[in-house]
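Suppose you are handed a protein chain with no further information: no name, no annotation, nothing but its sequence. What can you learn? This example shows the usual starting point.
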Amino acid sequence: MFERDNTAEQAILVHISFPQENAREDLQELKMLVSSAGVATLSVITGNRTTTDARFFIGSGKAQEVAEAVALYEADVVIFNHSLSPAQTRNLERLCQCRVIDRTTLILDIFAQRARTYEGKLQVELAQLKHLASRLIRGFDNERQKGGIGLRGPGETALETDRRLLRNRISALLQRLEKVSQQRETGRKARQRAEIPVLSLVGYTNAGKSTLFNRLTQSEVYAADQLFATLDPTLRQVRFAEFGPLIFADTVGFIRHLPHDLVAAFKSTLQESREADLQLHVIDVADPRVDDNIKQVQHVLAEIEADEVPQLKVFNKIDLIEQSPRIEYDESGTPIAVYISAATGQGFELLQQAIIERLSGSHVRVQLAVPPQQSAWRAKFHEAGVVQHEDFDEFGDCHIELALPRALWDKWLKQSQGLLDDLVLTE
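A reasonable first move is to predict its three-dimensional structure. Written in structure tokens, the prediction is:
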């Protein structure tokens, strides 16, 4: 009757509209999530309800419709665009005679597919186990284990065994993540000591963060037109023309109702956003849900206590709506938004200009004449990566131009005990 893709799982999607604002989900986003998970959609069942049904979530009549669709299309799985309770999931599976997963499980599965680094895999497994721990249940096989000689006694139920194994695994994962978190914190403190500004890219998933990151840093981070294309945090140090070194951090994308276990598991990764000197909030200006996406990102930033960090909005994908690149300023003349296209490079120079203007208040430019006997200071400047230009005169003095954070310059002035003050030509 119809062609089937033998390599992908076949799914029936279920989307129900509720009047409550906090219960609303987006059907188009569900389709993108399913596509990102590598699942083929056979049919979409929609409906409207005022409240959820305790037994089937969608009511017995709509549940029977789903079961009939599963039988008709021979579907492998039913995917709900909502969060289901363990009891509702079991009841639906018995009725439909196939696997039933909810929105949270789907997102966790996508994260599991995309994690590449050791830390990312640990974080996803931790989130999956925490989600599974609340859904463990056994039916008729929940009997006491039989003991052999030397092992007689009440024993423990199979369910208790599973729970104990889960607790042990979660505990082991937390210990490993704590070690990784300490290593990340060590690197973060080293960057702070070097006074190198950190710019964190945040935004709704598929807004173009990784594409922009690649253009800013000349990197080759994986970027694709799909949700959660990249999960693992990536940091790169670059140098803007006539400015000191900067570190850009690409972070995981956000989404509506991001599972709480994922937010908790990725908290150390998302801390890059909380500790940043400036957030680049990348926004897909061509998305019709742009205003709602901005609200969702701000909600997650508030949840990880990163909503107080200075932010520059980067409206991306202007090539899709035929807008011109530009910078928007507030009343004090501070850049607050830039319109660009990361894919084509439109407005990229304006973005660099806006970043420099936002950071320039904390930076200084200094010109010095360093004599040969103070070559150790010249080596220190090069080691810190703050040298913009240098040349030598006929007396062997090095005329050097620096661009660096004011805090670092003040620290060096203090360390030199006035020596650098004598070498300054202009500041």
